[in-house]
């Protein structure tokens, strides 16, 4: 006889063996104890989380010779018959292969007959969402006038596809994905019972890979046990799962961090040509991204699947996390999820993986560029305000208007070369030219030259006239005044144009 698979062998035979669904089990047991049994239940939830098992347990509980009881004996004829799948009162119908109206009509015929042996007739319809509209309508009629002592249990992985008319007539229970910890615990128990030694890390990988499904976890453990001749090790499990090895995944995240498109594409090519399952690769990368998010939010979070996949300890995993911001990690998950979905639809996985990579790396480079620019602006602003402060404190002399100096020098030369202006030259030569803006010439006299300044003030009109003649345009003289509104050197004004902010004038 073929060996019974682990998940069959370990189907929960009592409510206490169903793990991770306490909210469902407690409510059901309570209803049985208080004799408030509904006519129809909807068990919704992911694959392999205990829906069918719980439906069978409910059947046992109702029909146990000692029942209805919340703790069926698992010994009596009824319990044993249900366990062995030969009870005449329990009907398991696969909604996926009996989708039509004929099957449901047939069901409605039999529903009217009394239970053969037990107290209740229990109809378990799996994958109820697969029924046709006509079948649903036929079923609805039965639900509207439920026969005595008939209990329907509808199970579905996609409750949103079940018509509201049906939903509203069912008591609904939602089965959850089972946590890695709980799965791992169960795996420890089962491998101990089976007398097989399994490394903790190996169990952890299996539990993580199962993604909340106990059946998947048990199938994987089964395979791993068949695969090994002694202890089940982490390496063996990884090899068996064709898990994208830690190196390839690490390289993938490095390529993303560096924005290295070519490296990334080569990686995909290599993975593909060495026979790796690219969908699995992308799913693993998504898990890593998810773990990176968790760890960057909480460095002391429990061991994450991503760490196992990358084969990294917490410290180096955190380092990887630091290369990405959260928004980007979310982007990785979303982009890869889309690529996985499209790959499954079209079977052109490599193409969609490539496209996802191009998108991700473009995004990374863009956000890096933006970040660099932001840093630059922040730095410049800091420099600018430091500069402004120094100018304000008079520690830095504002550079002179760049065209004023040659103009001033040549003007002085001209003044000096003529007798009638030589005197003006003598007064003006100690002045500092500040700016020449159109007709406006700004000059300052250092404190020590008050006499010179006074003389220039006194002869201002004449000097202006002479300067205008020499220059070929009207000159207006401003003494010891800052140039008009746009004060200071052009450099400052330009910087302000670029970065905004206020320019503080020196006193
Ligand atoms: N909550 C659980 N506690 C213990 N074992 C479980 C649980 N869920 C699933 N299993 C294991 O997985 C096997 C399959 O579970 P079951 O058939 O109840 O899942 P299901 O939710 O009906 O899945 P599907 O949607 O694929 O029909 C069980 O025989 C059992 O070994
Ligand atoms: Mg099922
Ligand atoms: Zn019993």
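-> sequence recovered:
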């Amino acid at each position: 006889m073929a060996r019974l698979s682990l998940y069959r062998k370990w189907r929960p035979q009592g409510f206490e063996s169903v793990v991770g669904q306490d909210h469902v089990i407690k409510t059901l047991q309570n209803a049985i104890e208080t004799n408030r049994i509904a006519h129809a239940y909807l068990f919704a939830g992911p694959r392999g989380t205990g829906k069918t098992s719980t439906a069978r347990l409910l059947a046992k509980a109702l029909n146990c010779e000692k029942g209805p009881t919340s703790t069926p004996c698992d010994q009596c004829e009824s319990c044993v018959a249900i366990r062995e799948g030969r009870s005449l009162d329990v009907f398991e119908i696969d909604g996926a292969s009996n989708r039509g109206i004929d099957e449901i009509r047939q069901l409605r015929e039999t529903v009217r007959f009394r239970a053969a042996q037990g107290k209740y007739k229990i109809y378990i319809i799996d994958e109820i969402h697969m029924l046709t509209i006509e079948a649903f309508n036929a079923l609805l009629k039965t639900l509207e006038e439920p026969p005595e002592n008939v209990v329907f249990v509808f199970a579905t992985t996609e409750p949103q596809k079940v018509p509201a008319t049906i939903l509203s007539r069912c008591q609904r229970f939602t089965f959850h994905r089972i946590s890695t910890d709980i799965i791992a615990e169960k795996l420890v128990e089962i491998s101990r019972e089976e007398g097989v030694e399994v490394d903790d890390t190996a169990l952890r990988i299996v539990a993580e890979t199962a993604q909340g499904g106990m059946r998947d976890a048990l199938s994987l453990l089964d395979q791993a046990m068949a695969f090994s001749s002694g202890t089940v090790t982490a390496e063996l499990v990884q090899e068996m799962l064709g898990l994208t090895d830690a190196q390839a995944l690490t390289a993938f995240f490095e390529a993303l961090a560096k924005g290295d498109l070519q490296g990334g594409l080569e990686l995909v090519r290599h993975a593909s040509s060495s026979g790796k399952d690219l969908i699995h690769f992308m799913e693993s990368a998504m898990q890593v991204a998810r773990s990176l998010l968790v760890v960057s939010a909480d460095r002391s979070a429990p061991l994450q699947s991503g760490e196992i996949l990358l084969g990294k300890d917490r410290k180096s995993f955190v380092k990887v996390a630091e290369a990405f911001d959260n928004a980007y990690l979310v982007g990785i998950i979303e982009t890869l999820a889309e690529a996985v979905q499209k790959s499954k639809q079209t079977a052109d996985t490599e193409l969609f993986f490539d496209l996802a990579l191009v998108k991700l790396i473009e995004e990374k480079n863009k956000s890096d560029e933006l970040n660099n620019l932001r840093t630059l602006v922040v730095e410049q602003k800091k420099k600018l305000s430091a500069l402004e402060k120094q100018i304000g404190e008079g520690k830095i002399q504002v550079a002179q208007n760049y065209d004023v100096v040659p103009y001033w020098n040549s003007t002085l030369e001209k003044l000096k070369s003529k007798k009638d202006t030589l005197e003006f030259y003598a007064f003006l030569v100690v002045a500092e030219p500040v700016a020449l803006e159109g007709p406006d010439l700004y000059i300052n006299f250092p404190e020590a030259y008050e006499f010179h300044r006074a003389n220039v003030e006194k002869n201002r009109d004449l000097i202006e006239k002479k300067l205008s003649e020499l220059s070929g345009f009207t000159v207006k003289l401003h003494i010891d005044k800052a140039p008009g509104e746009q004060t200071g050197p052009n450099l400052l004004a330009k910087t302000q144009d670029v970065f905004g902010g206020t320019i503080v004038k020196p006193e």
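The longest strand covers residues 150-156.
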